[in-house]
Amino acid sequence: MSHELLQRERAHRLYRDLQPQLVRILASSLQAPEWVIDDACQTAWSSLLQRRPVLGPGGELGWLSTTATRAALRLLRRERRAEVQGEPVSVARLQDSRVAQAGPEHSIELRERLAEIRRLPVRQQRVVLLHGFGYEYGEIAAVTGETPRTVARQLTRARQRLLRLVQES
Predict the structure, then answer these.
(1) Which residues of 105-128 are buried (b: 16+ CB within 10 A; e: fewer)?
(2) Domain for residue 143, yes or no?
(3) pTM higher than 0.70, yes or no?
(4) Which residue range forms the structural domain that includes residue 27?
C-alpha cells in the first residue's frame, strides 16, 4: 500500500472519529449558527490536511478545535461588519435565494462558469473559489499556506487564464 493511500486512509479515519466531537465542542463553546460551525470545521480540516502540522498522538482534536474556533470567530466578525455596514447578513443565503429565483438560464450560466474554473490548475481553483466565497487575501494565504503576495499573483493568473478560455470559446 502506497504512502499516499495510507495518509488518505488515516485522514478518513480521523475525520470519522473526530468530526462529531469537533462539532459538539464548537456548538457548546460558541453561540453561532450551524453554517458558521460547519464552515469553521471544514476550514480547520482543510488546514490540517494541507499543512500537516507536527502533532503528538491524540493532539489532533485540540489543534482542530483551536483552529476551527478561530475560523468561526473570523466568520462571526465578518457577519457583524456586514450588519453594521448595512449589507445583507449571510451573503451565501442571499445568493442561494437569487439562484432559486433566477430560473434555469441563470443556473446554466453558473454551471458553465464553474466548468471554466475547473479548467484552471488546482492551485488557482482553490484561491479563486476561496476568494469567491468572500475570503480576503490574508485569510486565503493562511488556509493555503501561501503568502498574500502569492495569493494575489495566483488570482491574477487565474483571471487572465479565464479570460483566455472565454475568448477561445
Answers:
(1) eeeeeeeeeeeebeebeeebbbbb
(2) yes
(3) no
(4) 3-84
Question: Which pLDDT band, with edges at 50, 70 and 90, does 87 fall under?
Answer: very low
Contact in structure between 128 and 121 (CB atoms under 8 Å)? no
Which has more confidence, 73 or 2? Answer: 73
CA 50, CA 36: separation in Å to the nearest integer?
21
Taking Cα atoms as reference points, which of 23, 107, 113, 130 lies closest to residue 72?
A: 23
| Tally of domains within the chain | 2
Q: Which of 52, 84, 116 is the last residue of a domain?
A: 84
For residue 52, pLDDT beyond 70: yes
> Is residue 89, in this structure, part of any structural domain at all?
no
Which of residues 84, 108, 140 is at a domain's end? Answer: 84
Give the residue among 114, 123, 120, 122 at the shortest CA–CA distance from 159: 120
Share of the chain above pLDDT 90, in %: 12
Question: What's the sign of the alpha-carbon dihedral 50, 22, 128, 84?
Answer: negative
